[in-house]
Amino acid sequence: MGSLAGLPDSPRARAALIDSALAWYFVLVWGSGYVATKVALQYTTPLVFLSIRYALGIVCLSALALATPLRWPRQGVEWLHIVVAGLLVHALNLGGSHYAQYLGLSAGTVALILAAQPLVTACIVSLWMHERLLPRQWLGVALGLGGVALVVWHKLDIQAMSKASLFAVSLSLVGTTLGALYQRAFCARVDLRCASLIQFAASLGVLLPLALVFEGWHVHWNVALVAAAGYLVVGASILALNAFHILMRRGEATRVASLIYLTPIIAVLCEFLLFHVLPTLLSVGGMALACLGVALVAGRSRAAPAR
Fold first, then answer.
1. 207 contacts 51 by C-beta, under 8 angstroms
2. Is the separation of the CB atoms in 102 and 45 below 8 Å?
3. Fewer CB in 10 Å around end: N or C, the chain?
């Protein structure tokens, strides 16, 4: 019988229930976050919006730092690792994905391409890190990449995707893949709140000058923009990423990775509800094939994306 609070009595069962809730929270926020970005980019440009997002994140985390003690890195090399991981995950990854949407790529297609990150990671760890994949996982890699290719080339055929947007989302995929591997290798034990604050500051320091030089500072302030920024900062960049890293540290990367294939579906549903964007049958078929591939790979994979 469960406890009065509705949780199981067994500590292991309670921990499993909490981990499941964290995993589902991460995936649901991650999928809907693509559409929140699409909302924000109607009122400003990508690098300007990311600068606003990171400035707001610094304010939120600084307030948290004043309320609770943080364990700051003690060595310069620790700071360096945190900054490098942050620039990959926050600057390159989000900069690429935001520009892909800004240049006309749908939220669902961006989510699908980036959801293929476990497939790319599986190839990297097999070829260069000597982690053996099962035949089922290699089949998943082939199916997943084939599904992504089907959607991408279909979009190219109907001129729904420019070369610039494809290049931008490719940079994003590189950023999230390398960022996840780098963070796993060099930032496994850092204080998550401290790391987020350092990474937000580093990303702001890089992106703000680029925004001012290449985009100017054009912002149409309104409730929708502020709400999208708040949702992405608090819901995604702080809470969801911390949930992801907590699961990674508990050895639950496979649980998250096995749900990552749902993020494109969530993004497509949210995009349809808010913008009435309906994918074609061929795109749906490619998405289903890609989701199946990611599910096969993630069944035993230890890696998952970071944002």
1. yes
2. yes
3. N
Half-sphere exposure of 162 (CA within 13 A, CB side): 9
**Residue the block writes with tokens 């620790």:** 78
Outline where DSSP puts E strands in the chain.
Answer: none
* Look-up of token digits 């001129």: 159
Q: Which residues face 219 on adjacent strands? A: 44
If you search the block for the tokens 């890609």, which residue do you land on?
290
Angle at 82 between CA 130 and CA 122, to 5 degrees: 25
Q: What is the pTM of this model?
A: 0.83
Query: Which residues, 6 or more positions from 95, have their beta carbon under 8 angstroms from its beta carbon?
Result: 46, 47, 50, 171, 172, 175, 207
Give residue 3's identity as a one-letter amino acid code. Answer: S
Tokens describing residue 209: 């000058």
Please tell me the distance from the alpha carbon of residue 121 to that of residue 180, in angstroms, as a whole number.
9
Tokens standing for residue 244? 């992801």
Angle at 262 between CA 260 and CA 266, to 5 degrees: 125
CA distance 261 to 216: 36
Chain CA centroid to CA 53, Å: 15
Report the distance separating Cα 30 and Cα 260, nearest Å: 9
pLDDT tens for the 307 residues of the chain, in order: 445 455 566 777 777 788 778 888 988 998 899 999 999 999 999 999 999 999 999 999 998 888 888 888 989 999 999 999 999 999 999 999 999 999 988 888 898 888 888 778 777 877 776 667 778 878 887 888 888 877 777 665 555 567 899 899 999 999 998 998 898 889 888 888 899 999 999 999 999 999 999 999 999 999 999 999 999 999 998 888 778 777 766 665 555 666 676 788 888 889 888 988 887 888 888 888 888 887 787 664 444 444 4
Query: Can you tell me the distance from the alpha carbon of 105 to that of 160, in angstroms, rounded to the nearest whole number?
Result: 7
